[in-house]
Amino acid sequence: EASDFCLYWKWRHLYVPRNYDPTLHPFEVPREYTRALNATKLERVFAKPFVASLDGHRDGISCITKHAKSLSTIISGACDGEVKVWNLPRQECLRTVQAHEGFVRGICSRFCGTSFFTVGDDKTIKQWNWEAPGYGVREEPINTILGKAVFTGIDHHQREGTFVTCGQTVDIWDEQRSSPIRSFSWGVDSFSCVRYNPVETELLASCASDRSVVLYDTRESAPLRKVIMQLRSNTLCWNPMEAYYFTCANEDYNLYTYDIRHLDVPVTVHMDHVSAVLDVDYSPTGREFVSASFDKTIRIFPKDKGHSREVYHTKRMQHVICVRWSADNKYVLSGSDEMNIRLWKANASEKLGLLSAREKAATHYNKKLIEKFQHHPQVRRIARHRHLPGDILKQKRELREMREAQRRKEQNVRKHSKPGSVPLLTEKEKHVVAVVE
Amino acid sequence: MQNENLVQISFFNQLMLVHPRKKQNERSEASVQVSEYFVNAEGTGDKVNLSDLLGTVEKTSGASNKTKKQLRNLQSSKETLELPLNKQQTEKIQRGIAYEKTTAEVSCWKNIILQNQKAEQMVFPLNQESSGPKRVEQVVAGWKVQTPLEQEIFRLLHGSRQPVNDPVLTPVEEQSLKAMSLEEAKIRRAELQKARALQSYYEAKAKREKKIKSKKYHKVQNKAKRKDFLKQFDEMVKTNPEGALEELKKMELSRMEERMSLKHQNSGKWAKSKAIMAKYDDSARKAMQEQLQMNKDLTQKMVVPSDDEHESIEEGLETVPDFVNDPETVIDPVNPWMRGQLTHEEPEVSCVTAEEVQTAEEENEEEEIIGEFERKRKLRQADEEDLIPTEEERKKTQEEDEDEEEDVSEFNTLFRLMRSEKTREGSNQTRGGLNTAGEEDEEGLLSEGQIRVRSIEDLEVLDEVVEPRAIEEPSAPQTAAAEATSEPPHKKKREINLKEVLTKEAKAVRLPFLPTVVDEEERDEQISIIKEAFAGDDVISDFIKDKSRQEAAGRPAVVDLTLPGWGEWGGVGLKPPRWKRKRFRIKTAPPPPRQDQKLPDVIISEKRTASVASHQVSQLPFPFQNTAQFESSIRTPIGSTWNTQTVVKNMTKPKVVTKLGAIIEPMVKEDFIKSKTTAAGGKGAAIMLGENRRAKEGTKRTKILALTELPTA
């Protein structure tokens, strides 16, 4: 590259010619192995993911959303109807609004970053200005829409002035109108979450209380298809880089990634949580996602792996209700029952801020080394070690025993019944009850 | 009359209903009853029947025959219409159609998603445009016609081939300018004519010569040709070494072909007939000898002076079976016969070519040096690896020296057979390893525990906590590090079952000694072959010897540290005093009992050291197909100690790069998927830059030249 060349010429007075003759540098594998082992150890030692805690809410956090255009701003809604706007670098609350009576069920930001919408238990949809009102002016919404039933979730279109809410039905609204332009229902009485596909912007998916995930197309008059699982899904999130994949957080402690073209079997089952998974959000690169669980931990999963690569927890963090991945792929935000919003690093041992070229090169080299020697037992053992609180560990052990017992029982049943009458089901096939057309 | 008119109108209305989209003028006439189709029936209770209407249709000339026919058919049929589907079913169908449509639409992302997954590096945010002012060329090159007006203008401009930028000459004018002058064309034509005539002469001559049936003539001709060629070749060596080398290669190829074929081997039909005659006929004998001589000549190796010494050495060693020098590690599961040097050479060749490509690309010198180093390193490593097997093989060679008179080639073939079986087993093993590796992959979960890690010391402690388990696990034999990696893991964990081992051993050993009770001829034959091969071997005693030798090697040796003191005699054969022997001859503690102590038929190697074993990979990891692959991936260093800066940078570049403080937006469909229905003008950039235009015109011009040549030639 030209830039490398320039760099080289700029620093050529520092350039020391090297002899790369391998006879002069023997033992390359053992030396690199030692380096890899050291790199793994350092990575674990420097793994300090917790950055900050934002406190100020007077009830559990029920939802968080990011500003569409600003990395430093987030909004959070609490169970007492309060909405707070936060500045992340300064770690302080900029503005507090008593938005609803009862829970704030959902918040979403308009794509242009000028206003945001909230829905609450008081059956209203409110649109608020991102700008705080001047001194002495009362905090009032731009628009208020009074609905017929409680809204449980809201999401905004990626580029147009429409948004979608869910409650008893899935409604699509035009910002200019006070009644929905379309509503979808399919024999279900309530929905818990609805999300627009960020890539194929006319696609929608929602989680319903009849244990199903329903797909919609806003251009069609009827819903597309639904898949019914063994337990209810709480929330779902679309992959922002891969249009046809979404992941849903289920009550049965697992997350499921689906390809909407083949709904009958999930692409991947992500298991590691030991309690119901309450929220999920994809990283903006679409390579990983973060999940929040009732078991007081958040976990980060690679999108195509069955197990998590990272688990975050603190002593004071209670049931985590909502989680978001920041738009620059660097941080993760979690809101939990005990009224705090926590800011975590997405890569636990990453050094924040600007790095010098040498530092950068060293980190890249270390990462590559760990990757190269990842199959070596010592490296693998150290890289995988994570601390978990005792009760979660206990639950995990219990769960493993339960699964083992179930498996054993199934085996026995199969052994004592007519061959072929008890089919062998893979983990992926087990959880889908039916796909309804 | 009026009645008829009305009926006609109402019929017209009904016809209109067939096409409901057309806007309908609603008729509002006063009547008591209004039908739902806006047809006014005259009077109460009167119904308009189809027959009423049809009468008039027959008469009207405007209605087409087709509709008339249809109506007639309708009149005659007595069937009722089917009920429409119920709501649920129609909805289901609608949903199905909508779903198909969306999946088809979404599937267009497939290629992009796959591409991104395979990409070596992804830089986020995607589609980032460099901020700051752009150059005019960039703006112009990226500009596309969008509005219909622009499209029309550009169509006109491009269609007429009028120069867009500076009106100098149209392409047609340029063509006419570029055409040849008359004289030139004439000269060229004459040249071509001459060439063609010459060609035809030569062709005719060749045909004539080919027709001559005399064998002697052809023989003489061929001989002359060969002589000529040899002369030319000698000259060529001096003048054009590259060409000579090529010729040499050709000769080598013909030699190889000769060696492969049965030509000139005295094995054909002709040769057989001659062989019968040879007793009586001198000429027949001579002919056969000639043929053999021909074979000899053709298969003779070309002597190249530079390689002379090398070959002479090789020839000197020819008595030793050639497998001795083969490297053990190279095992080609597909073709066990192509082991050793051939398979060994291939990768090197590929290396060289790859390097050549690289050098052609960029950074030639540096890369070359690196490549050389790489080669050196490989050589060195190969040497190191060879060290261990050669010791074993040296013993074999010694044994063979004793009965050198025996034919070596037979043994070679037998040995290869055995090795091929081994490799087959090996491949089976690796397959087993793969399976388990797949299970292992599922175990990619974090090892979560209550131990907190705050410093490197904690990590060391973590080591100790877990290590005992690591020691407990291995119990199976491990002869060499390379074998260790290829062995399936379940074998190691399983306790050694005496019976199982015995059965395997029995199969291998007893077969040659079994009395051949079975009448099957094939089996007899095989057994006899094996017997012949191992005629002098006493396998069992060998085994026992081997075991006792290993046991002896494992026993602690007495370390003698006695030295002659002041005023004592030194030298060989002296017996130091008792107290000295007692004090300075140190017996080391005996090692733990051997694992195969109570197993008479088994040797379990004790070479595996636990301290190193905990750092070694015990089974083949998932993405790798064989141990060689995995080892090579580990062997290539990536650090800057061994590689140049640019190489290190390339090798260590991260998979995902994000920009600090930049918002990564989701993909936008318009940026990635070009809609298929774009206008013709919208496909490429509307304005081409000067260079591009020139290049395109260049291609056109060559075409034109080719065209102008045709008529003259």
From TrEMBL, chain A:
<dbReference type="GO" id="GO:1990756">
    <property type="term" value="F:ubiquitin-like ligase-substrate adaptor activity"/>
</dbReference>
<feature type="domain" description="Sof1-like protein">
    <location>
        <begin position="346"/>
        <end position="432"/>
    </location>
</feature>
<keyword id="KW-0690">Ribosome biogenesis</keyword>
<keyword id="KW-0539">Nucleus</keyword>
<keyword id="KW-0698">rRNA processing</keyword>
<keyword id="KW-0853">WD repeat</keyword>
<dbReference type="GO" id="GO:0016567">
    <property type="term" value="P:protein ubiquitination"/>
</dbReference>
<comment type="pathway">
    <text>Protein modification; protein ubiquitination.</text>
</comment>
<dbReference type="GO" id="GO:0007292">
    <property type="term" value="P:female gamete generation"/>
</dbReference>
<feature type="repeat" description="WD">
    <location>
        <begin position="313"/>
        <end position="354"/>
    </location>
</feature>
<dbReference type="Pfam" id="PF04158">
    <property type="entry name" value="Sof1"/>
</dbReference>
<feature type="repeat" description="WD">
    <location>
        <begin position="270"/>
        <end position="301"/>
    </location>
</feature>
<comment type="similarity">
    <text>Belongs to the WD repeat DCAF13/WDSOF1 family.</text>
</comment>
<keyword id="KW-0687">Ribonucleoprotein</keyword>
<dbReference type="InterPro" id="IPR019775">
    <property type="entry name" value="WD40_repeat_CS"/>
</dbReference>
<dbReference type="InterPro" id="IPR036322">
    <property type="entry name" value="WD40_repeat_dom_sf"/>
</dbReference>
<dbReference type="InterPro" id="IPR015943">
    <property type="entry name" value="WD40/YVTN_repeat-like_dom_sf"/>
</dbReference>
<dbReference type="InterPro" id="IPR051733">
    <property type="entry name" value="WD_repeat_DCAF13/WDSOF1"/>
</dbReference>
<dbReference type="InterPro" id="IPR007287">
    <property type="entry name" value="Sof1"/>
</dbReference>
<keyword id="KW-0677">Repeat</keyword>
<dbReference type="InterPro" id="IPR001680">
    <property type="entry name" value="WD40_rpt"/>
</dbReference>
<dbReference type="GO" id="GO:0032040">
    <property type="term" value="C:small-subunit processome"/>
</dbReference>
From TrEMBL, chain B:
<feature type="compositionally biased region" description="Acidic residues">
    <location>
        <begin position="399"/>
        <end position="409"/>
    </location>
</feature>
<feature type="region of interest" description="Disordered">
    <location>
        <begin position="468"/>
        <end position="494"/>
    </location>
</feature>
<dbReference type="GO" id="GO:0006364">
    <property type="term" value="P:rRNA processing"/>
</dbReference>
<dbReference type="InterPro" id="IPR006709">
    <property type="entry name" value="SSU_processome_Utp14"/>
</dbReference>
<protein>
    <recommendedName>
        <fullName>UTP14C small subunit processome component</fullName>
    </recommendedName>
</protein>
<keyword id="KW-0539">Nucleus</keyword>
<keyword id="KW-0597">Phosphoprotein</keyword>
<feature type="compositionally biased region" description="Acidic residues">
    <location>
        <begin position="358"/>
        <end position="371"/>
    </location>
</feature>
<dbReference type="GO" id="GO:0032040">
    <property type="term" value="C:small-subunit processome"/>
</dbReference>
<comment type="similarity">
    <text>Belongs to the UTP14 family.</text>
</comment>
<feature type="region of interest" description="Disordered">
    <location>
        <begin position="355"/>
        <end position="449"/>
    </location>
</feature>
<dbReference type="Pfam" id="PF04615">
    <property type="entry name" value="Utp14"/>
</dbReference>
